[in-house]
């Protein structure tokens, strides 16, 4: 397992489970139809946990270009490795969203609303307002990244005074942060807080022969890409200023 493969696999699992809950919640004739916002935010948090557990030991489980760029800006990750991680994250996101479509194909066909079909792949604002929408993505990602910076050096004592890493347990606090961001700040834009999570599946939506699909929302697509990057860099600057 290389860091590249770990990021591809971890991000694919993240999007498979995250996109899967959206499909299960909003597409017609699913067992989970109408589950609501609590199920969506909870499952996205658990999706992050799964991705981090799998990829963490090999790549650090960024699974998010904003995390990769933020850590590099904060001096905790080499800039030379950023392109490799970004490529892996976008590839993984596209694989994961493609698998969601394969699994829920019958339910895509049973759903007439093209907007709901697109929502399985990517985010849209509840109320379109470019300024407030990008502020939402900036703030959500800022909260995620400022926590990630402090999690990065987390350790526990094993009872003998020896410090050991958190291992898979370290994925739990990250999952809780994502869950909290979704519950508190996700109501405006659907909290992409991850450029690969939004742009990768949006590209897949544009390419797939989805019956009755609408456009892929390209006029909005820049916000869930630029907003998270700005939020991550701001978190890095604050972290550096405080430490």
TrEMBL record:
Alphabetical UniProt keywords: Membrane, Transmembrane, Transmembrane helix, Transport
Membrane topology (UniProt): Multi-pass membrane protein
GO molecular function, one term: glycerol channel activity
Pfam family, one: MIP
Alphabetical list of PROSITE patterns matching this protein: MIP
GO CC terms in record: plasma membrane
Localisation: Membrane
Major location (coarse): membrane
NCBIfam families associated with the record: MIP (TIGR00861)
Protein name: Aquaporin family protein
Source lineage: Bacteria, Pseudomonadati, Bacteroidota, Flavobacteriia, Flavobacteriales
